[in-house]
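Propose amino acids for all 173 sites.
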């Protein structure tokens, strides 16, 4: 069992993960519209990943007999100044999510909720990867600067990303 407070906090996290997916879908759409097809694919895959993050928590809450409640998702921005600005927006959101995950872990520890603490470890590790991958792209974009051929190459590389359903995901359903 999990407490009402923990359930409410996890429900809030479902919403943050859904918003992340919505933000990345908005970025994907803007990339596609502006001809950045590779980056559009990268962010589309990111949206798919965020959906699995939200569903992991949704499944966890429901499996414990609690109520995973869905709230309205904030409208994301629709236009961006540059590809760098899009990845900066992504990094900013990922850092916020990392902080929220840390707060959830702290709450689980405070409540001696070992099951939820263990469940959240996956997210702790995932956030390291998420921030790292966005930071890696940002570093490349900064190196390329105004160089259009550099941007073209980066966009091409970003387009190689594919979505892989995490092997352990099905088990959570
Ligand atoms: Fe699910 Fe990218 O945080």
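Proposal:
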């Amino acid at each position: 069992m999990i407490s009402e407070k923990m359930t409410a906090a996890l429900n809030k996290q479902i919403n943050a993960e859904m918003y992340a997916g919505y933000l990345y879908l908005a970025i994907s759409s803007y990339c596609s519209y502006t001809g950045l097809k590779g980056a559009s694919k990268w962010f589309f895959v990111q949206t798919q990943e965020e959906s699995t993050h939200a569903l992991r928590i949704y499944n966890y809450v429901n499996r414990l007999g609690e109520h995973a409640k869905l709230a309205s998702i904030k409208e994301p921005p629709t236009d961006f100044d540059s590809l760098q600005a899009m990845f900066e927006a992504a990094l900013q959101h990922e850092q916020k999510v990392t902080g929220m995950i840390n707060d959830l872990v702290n709450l689980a520890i405070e409540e001696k909720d070992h099951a939820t603490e263990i469940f959240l470890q996956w997210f702790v590790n995932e956030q390291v990867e998420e921030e790292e991958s966005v930071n890696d792209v940002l570093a490349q974009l900064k190196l390329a600067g105004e160089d259009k051929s550099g941007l073209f190459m980066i966009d091409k590389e970003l387009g190689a990303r594919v979505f892989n359903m995490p092997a352990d995901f099905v088990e959570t359903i």
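The pocket of MU-OXO-diiron is lined by residues 17, 20, 50, 53, 94, 97, 130 (CB under 6 Å). The chain has a mean pLDDT of 96.
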